[in-house]
Write a structure and sequence with these properties.
This protein has 750 residues and is mainly beta. The chain has 5 helices and 55 strands. Strands 1, 2, 3, 4, 5, 6, 8, 9 and 18 form a 9-stranded mixed β-sheet that branches. Strands 38, 43, 44, 45, 48, 49, 50, 52 and 53 form a 9-stranded antiparallel β-sheet that branches. Strands 7-13-10-16-17 form a 5-stranded mixed β-sheet, with no helix packed on it. The longest helix has 17 residues.
């Protein structure tokens, strides 16, 4: 656990429909995944349109992990394999789709997290994605209240939505709660009463839950009114979202059993094995039409192979058709989904007897289910050298997806994957350039990677197994720039050009601390003016926050602008610890805002919305002078590594996270910053136990980020920076004379 020096008070699948074809498990477990999505039904009309569902299908992401981290990841329904080979063990499936935004009238987010076990043999998993938003709405009858120009604003700590007379009748608001600990949606009702006076009413909806709709109804209060104006009554209906199964099943398609049907089946000496094609259709198949290319002799195209007469005729020629019906694990209207499975086996004798052809033999399938969904697929057979499909010697993978592989393409570097298809490929690598540039640069794999790829290519030339791959790392790229890239090797230059765009840099707002303002806060001793390290006087909107609101209770200013030591501009930030009401309040500043004072303790929200980039370090100019005569609140001695009467310590720490981090210093419900938090993706810190920087001036300091394993699969959404003149201020320990000066924070990308 990292001790955050921020004691500031002084006194938030779509179905893969994986096929359960009986592929051998080889001693491991086979997993098939079926993912459903549930969405709300409004007035008996499904809220998810077919267009939206198609988008959700294409963008759905499913991760499978175990105690060691991410094992499998997929994006898009069609990219999840029919059968996933996995070792026996305990796993977690995490699936999501949609738009995870703080607040929206139309963007919804669906999420599911489910633990499961894989055992030897066939295993199945159904993941149910439910809407993850808190939904708010207003009963249209509210417009009948005698309140003109009505406006209702719903808000969380980070976002708000306005309902006006124009949209109250139809709009719904979808909120993603900033954290699991935030369970309140505030509301504000504004308008003009019948006597022309302004009307304002504020309140909170407590203990909100995801997948619940909170419908506000505004009615006239029946209490007699003795003076002019209007009184209204507010009622909130908590409605668990009415859900209906919205299940998307894929069109029927043809797949190879034990081989990739996208590749040729090759035997130039015509010594084939039995070759099977597997077709699966949900709700039942109405027809499977099989067609043969012109080089087949004596074969009839256009027949429905599900009819008995055709099955008998094909069997006489060495083609066996087997059909069976089963039930899938997913329920529809209380019943099991009917599944048609068809196996078409082309016998060794049939394939070996095909005359040598300079063109490949093609057998195509057009399958139609009872929903009239049509799927296609083709089996391609080569039995001569002239018919064998000679692929390009090398190739490249598409650009990495920043949502599932966020560290592959950074601001100044990129890691790209290439493939070796031919064992004869030499001097292979990847060429790249800025989009539209005239010349290309070249990047090669390491000698070890290149040798391994060539060996794999030689093995795969015989087995036609998985393609050999290699990686190259591109360096010294420009941030926020689109690049083109392609594969090459000796004697070959690919025409297949792919693109990627480097991350943009993130510029820290008010990094030089030139902007300061004030705001009013309620404290135990009345309303106080609080100094804010940001313009506008809005603590929630300001990038920087401080513990000044807590210190204001005792009339202490812990953090303020200073001209004593400056690197650039007119001001720096001066963080000065102080003694208030007999305990230490730490001088501090942090990215985020001070939520409230809980007795003599602080409640904070750390982290500001971030562009997802991956800097190598944070640079800042600092001067620190630790105070002596440390005091420690009684009972906290064992919680700190400074001693009473000794020298204080200062600290700066930085982090990238995938959500804001809540901090509470009250011992009764304490929550401090920890690098073990699963939402922390990267971290760095510096701790001073002695003076830093020359007397009277600032010195440059660089704090490197350490990226954790989870950063490889999870994009960063928030930046955390915390600086404190007394590291153990959380425990009311430190020196009242410790001072830290800061100026010019900067993210460094290398």
């Amino acid at each position: 656990m990292t001790r955050s020096a921020v004691a500031l008070a002084a006194a938030a699948l779509l179905p893969s429909c994986a096929m359960e074809a009986p592929f051998g498990d080889g001693g491991e477990g086979n997993l098939t995944v079926s993912t459903e999505i549930k969405g709300e039904v409004i007035k008996n009309t499904r809220a998810i349109s077919s267009e939206e569902m198609t988008k959700l299908r294409e963008n759905c992401i499913i991760w499978i992990s175990n105690s060691k981290g991410l094992i499998k990841r997929y994006k898009g329904v069609d990219n999840i394999p029919e059968n996933i080979k996995m070792k026996v063990g305990h796993y977690t499936a995490d699936a999501w789709s949609g738009d995870s935004v703080s607040a929206s009238y139309d963007k919804k987010f669906y999420r599911a997290v489910q633990e499961f076990d894989v055992q030897q043999g066939q295993n199945s998993l159904t993941v149910l994605c439910k809407i993850a938003n808190v939904v708010v709405s207003i009963d249209p009858a509210s417009l009948d209240v005698n309140l003109s120009d009505m406006k209702v604003t719903f808000s969380t700590s980070v976002a708000s939505l306005e309902f006006t007379e124009d949209n109250i009748a139809s709009a719904k608001g979808y909120f993603m709660m900033p954290s699991a600990d935030e369970t309140t949606v505030s509301y504000k009702i504004e308008g003009t009463a019948s006597d022309g006076s302004a009307y304002l009413k504020e309140g909170k909806i407590e203990n909100v839950q995801r997948a619940h709709e909170y419908c506000m109804k505004i009615t006239a209060d029946e209490t007699p009114v003795t003076e002019g104006g209007a009184l209204i009554r507010i009622t909130i209906a908590d409605i668990p979202i009415i859900e209906d199964d919205i299940e998307i099943f894929p069109s029927p398609n043809a797949r190879g059993v034990g081989y990739n049907i996208e590749e040729q089946v090759v035997s130039v000496d015509r010594s084939f094995s039995d070759t099977r094609v597997y077709i699966r259709g949900y709700f039942g198949l109405s027809s499977v039409i099989m067609n043969f290319s012109d080089n087949f002799a004596g074969m009839t195209s256009g027949q429905n192979i599900l009819t008995n007469s055709v099955i008998t005729d094909l069997a006489s020629k060495g083609i066996r058709v087997e059909r069976q019906e089963s039930s899938d694990a997913a329920n529809v209207d209380g019943g099991q989904v009917k599944v048609d499975e068809v196996y078409v086996t082309f016998s060794k004798e049939f394939l070996d007897a095909l005359p040598a052809s300079s063109e490949e033999y093609v057998i195509s399938f057009e399958s139609t289910d009872v929903r009239n969904q049509v799927g296609t697929g083709s089996l391609r057979i080569a039995n001569s050298e002239d018919a064998v499909e000679h692929m390009a010697p090398v190739g490249v993978a598409p650009a990495p997806n920043p949502q599932t592989d966020p560290m592959a393409v950074l601001a100044t570097s990129a890691t790209l994957t290439g493939y070796v298809y031919s064992a004869d490929a030499a001097n292979f690598g990847i060429r790249y350039r800025e989009e539209g540039a005239l010349t290309w640069s070249e990047a090669y794999p390491s000698s070890a990677q290149g040798a391994a790829a060539r060996r794999a290519a030689r093995r795969n030339a015989a087995t036609r197994g998985e393609t050999a791959s290699f990686q190259v790392q591109l360096k010294n790229l420009k941030p926020g720039t689109t690049y083109e890239y392609k594969s090459f090797c000796h004697g070959y230059d690919s025409a297949d050009i792919q693109k990627f765009t480097t991350e943009g840099v993130f510029v820290i707002d008010n990094a030089s601390f030139e902007n300061w303002s004030t705001y009013s806060a309620s404290t135990l001793l009345g309303t106080k003016t609080v100094i804010l390290p940001g313009a506008g006087g809005d603590k929630v909107a300001s990038f920087w926050g401080s513990g000044n609101e807590g210190g204001a209770t005792a009339n202490k200013v812990l953090t303020d602008k200073s001209t004593d030591m400056v690197h650039s501009g007119q001001y720096s930030a001066r963080l000065a610890s102080a003694s208030a009401l007999g305990i230490i309040a730490a001088g501090n500043i942090f990215a985020g805002y001070y939520v409230e004072t809980d007795g003599t303790n602080g409640v904070l929200k750390l982290g500001r919305e971030y562009n997802g980039s991956h800097p190598t370090k944070v640079r800042v100019y600092a001067n620190y002078r630790p105070g002596g005569s440390v005091t420690i609140k009684g009972g906290n001695e064992s919680l700190v590594d400074i001693v009473k009467g000794g020298t204080d310590q200062g600290q700066i720490y930085i982090a990238l996270t995938d959500e804001p981090i809540d901090i509470r210093t009250n011992p009764d419900n304490q929550k401090l910053f920890s690098t073990e938090d699963s939402h922390v993706l990267a971290y760095g810190q510096v701790t001073w136990s002695e003076a830093f920087g020359p007397d009277g001036s600032l010195q440059m300091l660089e704090i490197p980020f350490e990226y954790f394993e989870r950063a490889k699969t999870t994009p960063a959404t928030h930046l955390v920076i915390v600086a404190c003149a007394s590291k153990f201020g959380d425990f009311f320990a430190g020196s009242a004379s410790s001072v830290l000066y800061l100026d010019d924070f900067e993210l460094v990308y290398e």
